[in-house]
Amino acid sequence: MKAINTTRQQRLGDNIKVAANFFSRLVGLLATPRLQAGAGLLIKPCNSVHTFGMRYPIDVVFVDSSHTVVKVVSGLKPCRLAAVRGAAYVIELPEGMASATFTQKGDKLEIIN
Which PANTHER family did the record assign (predicted)? Predict the structure, then answer.
């Protein structure tokens, strides 16, 4: 999948995997040594994430059901939690991607298969 910030005309990632069942949501990025540029994980449904067991920081974009960004957590370090009410899904991205694409609260996203 691809994730595009249509407000800023920026690509968040071209290789976004989806975690939509119990097992894939449970494992998430734990099995990855690091997140490659252009990669990410869309977790649905989801309004909170943790980085327990991870070895690297990530950017987390919380998005509501109308594909509007409701919160951005940049550089979420290992062994931390982040949550927001109203999020329908999250996109986990390589650290620095949110700021590199100027993604912020209120931006609209498009997810393309």
Answer: UPF0127 PROTEIN MJ1496 (PTHR37953)
- Global pTM? 0.94
- Closest by alpha carbon to 70, among 84, 53, 51? 84
User: CATH no. for residue 86?
Assistant: 2.60.120.1140
CB 15 within 8 A of CB 7: no
Number of domains in the chain: 1
Q: 97: domain range?
A: 2-112
Computed on alpha carbons and rounded to an integer, the radius of gyration of the chain in Å comes to: 12
Of 22, 32, 14, the C-alpha closest to 91 is: 14
SS3 call for 4: strand
Q: Tell me if residue 64 falls in helix, strand or coil.
A: coil
pLDDT tens string 63-75? 999 999 999 999 9
Least confident of 29-43, 56-70, 73-87: 29-43
